[in-house]
Amino acid sequence: MFRPFGYLNFDMGNARLGEVYILNQKGDILLKLQGRIGSKTLKISILNSKIAGASDVKAAEERVKCQLTKYQMCMGCLACESVCRFNALTVREGKNGETQYRISDGKCMRCGECVAHFTAGCYMRKVLTIKRGGEGGSHGRKE
Ligand code: SF4
Ligand code: SF4
Predict the structure, then answer these.
(1) Which ligand is nearest to the CA of 102?
(2) Which of 62, 108, 116, 132 is positioned for an S-S bond with 88, CB 3.0–4.6 A?
């Protein structure tokens, strides 16, 4: 999930606390993730706002939220695949019908393009939001 932001480093953090750092190519720390295996809570600390083309902390926070949205809401529409110029992103249906959104560590160039390409990170979310808004408006007129 976090590959578009940088390179995952499992050695720098405290393994007992489930800490993982994300670094840029120069080795600067960008993000710190903290979440124990099995826990449903993940703490994300933005330590450098220069992630996925963001210019300040607020924009960086939005980028992170976009990426979380993909993993929470992906319905497998494949739009994200066409955004990646490096063929690093695949969206497939798993054996149990679940959507598998994967980013290849070897192919990903950390260009950040896939992160915020669509409003709120997901094309389908935008479509569904507009549709819901439209349905609500029509319902209102009938009444
Ligand atoms: S746009 Fe949304 S639903 Fe479509 S592949 Fe990307 S995350 Fe999944
Ligand atoms: S668009 Fe492709 S290469 Fe760029 S960050 Fe996303 S997955 Fe990586």
Answers:
(1) 2
(2) 108
**CA 135 to centroid of ligand 2, rounded, Å:** 34
Is 80 touching ligand 1 by the criterion CB < 6 Å?
Answer: yes
The domains of the chain are located at 3-142
Residue 69 exposure: Cα atoms within 13 Å on the Cβ side: 20
Question: pTM of the prediction?
Answer: 0.84
Mean pLDDT by 10 residues, the chain (143 residues): 94 93 96 88 94 93 92 91 96 90 96 90 79 53 35
Ligand 1 in reach of 89 Cβ (< 6 A): no
Q: How far is CA 138 from the centre of its chain?
A: 33
> How many CB atoms lie under 10 A from the CB of residue 66?
21
